[in-house]
Amino acid sequence: MNVNSDHDGAHADRTAPRSRMFPEGTGPAADPAGSHFERRIRSFQPRRSRVTTGQADVLRRLWPSWGLDIDGQRVLDLDAMFGGLPVVLEIGFGMGEATARMAADDPDTGILAADVHTPGQGNLLRLAERDGLSNIRVANGDAIILLREMLPPGSLAGIRVYFPDPWPKKRHHKRRLIQPEFLDLVAPRLKPGAVLHCATDWEPYAEQMLDVLTAHPAYENTSPGTGYAPRPDFRPLTRFEGQGLEKGHAVRDLLFRRVADGAAAA
After folding, report:
1. What pTM value is reported for the model?
2. What is residue 175's DSSP assignment?
3. Active-site residue 184, yes or no?
4. pLDDT at residue 38 above 90?
5. Of 179, 110, 111, 113, which Cα lies nearest the Cα of 143?
């Protein structure tokens, strides 16, 4: 996921790690899961970008009501959190511009947006507050722990994974998020008919995504004839994507629907 610079015009704080910037309960924790879970190979890299004073302010004000740490110590009640709206999990949102636009365009869907990038968390909350978006909640930490420990079966109306780190070096391919093990974990959390939507501008990763999704019995391709789908209208064209298109990158969208248990074998 590309990280774009924020535009709130505030001066950047040069120091203060998150653990000191946000006392417990007043902002995203530096290591929310702590030592409660095994240290697995992670599919993301922690980002140490500076948090602006504006971002820090909005995090302190809104985190207690609009944010949550992925600590793996509780099961989330998404109905209570989103007032009964169907909920889509977005894994990795950069600076949050596309997430905020999707939330504004579809106020009848809740977006649980997970990332580890503190400036992006602050910027997304700033956009949500500015635009009066009540259907966004921001989750801080490892999405794998969120899926495995904190989301009950059949709780999600969809999952979005837009422009994840492609880990281009062959020795790092094991760090790519879209793997058979990830699809195994995701499938029970999706309602039948829910869509797993991936997008990437890295062609080898797109090919891997297509291969593993096609091979998995819990999912069916919504574009079986072509494999890749046209970019749906609800996914905004981001600056990062536009820059890639200008460079001649092919952006691939993959939309795979969760089939009912047993349907794939029928």
Report:
1. 0.85
2. G
3. no
4. no
5. 113
